Amino acid sequence: MQIGIAAHSGEIPENLAVETKELVRLLNERCKDVVLILGGYWGLMKTVVDQASKFSMKTVLLLPIENENISAPEGVIIIKTGEEYRARSVPLVRSSDFLIALGGSAGTMIEAMMGYAMGKEVFILKGFGMPSDKLEKLGEYPDNRKNGKLRFYENASKLVEDLCSSQIKNKISEVG
Questions:
Q1: C-alpha to C-alpha distances, 46 to 10, 23, 32, 49, 76, nearest whole angstrom
Q2: What count of other Cβ atoms lies within 10 Å of the Cβ of residue 104?
Q3: What is the pLDDT along the chain (176 residues), one digit of tens a residue?
Q4: 10 Å Cβ neighbour count for 122?
Q5: CA-CA distance, 113 to 148, in Å (whole number)?
Q6: Per-residue DSSP letters for the chain?
Q7: Contacts for 61-65: CB closer than 8 Å, 24+ residues apart
């Protein structure tokens, strides 16, 4: 299962960093064969990558051209996309079976809506005072097409529980 992570690129509230570390721990513990896909190694994305590295989770970084010369932990796969920040969001979302939005600003919100438009289930962690909390005002289905679904959570535990359940449902529908 490939999980795209949309997350804030700047300074983050400590309580959001703690909840993010818990989310990664739970993904490692409860979901099977997880590959995390992120668009960088700074801000909250760095928190995700560093925590995933502690558990030897497979992690892929799709780096924008403006910030592609970074050092990441050993074992992290780095892809230099040659694309600017917003353009690199397309392969991030398209390559993901599910998308998790962990709080952020316009980039996180764009990726969440892109996921919805591409028919993905988008799992949104909310309630940490980030601009992406506003996505909840759009509801589960922001438009009448109902391509994907926006799902909102106040804690990592329930988010991961539902995501892992969705993973099982997808596997059954692929086989059936």
A1: 10, 14, 22, 5, 12
A2: 24
A3: 999 999 999 999 999 999 999 999 999 999 989 999 999 999 999 999 999 999 999 999 999 999 999 999 999 999 999 999 899 999 999 999 999 999 999 999 999 999 999 999 999 999 999 999 999 999 999 999 999 999 999 999 999 999 998 865 665 455 45
A4: 26
A5: 9
A6: -EEEEE--SS---HHHHHHHHHHHHHHHHHSSS-EEEES-SSHHHHHHHHHHHHTT-EEEEEE-GGG------TT-EEEE--S-HHHHHHHHHHT-SEEEE-S-SHHHHHHHHHHHHTT-EEEEE--SS-GGGGGGGG-S-SSTT--SEEEEESSHHHHHHHHHHHHHHHHHHHH-
A7: 62/37, 62/38, 62/88, 62/91, 62/92, 62/95, 63/39, 63/88, 64/39, 64/40, 64/88
For residues 38, 49, 79, 71, the Cα torsion angle rounded to the nearest 10 degrees is 140
- What does residue 115 show for φ and ψ, rounded to 5 degrees? -60, -45
On whether the CB atoms of residues 65 and 79 are closer than 8 A, the answer is: no
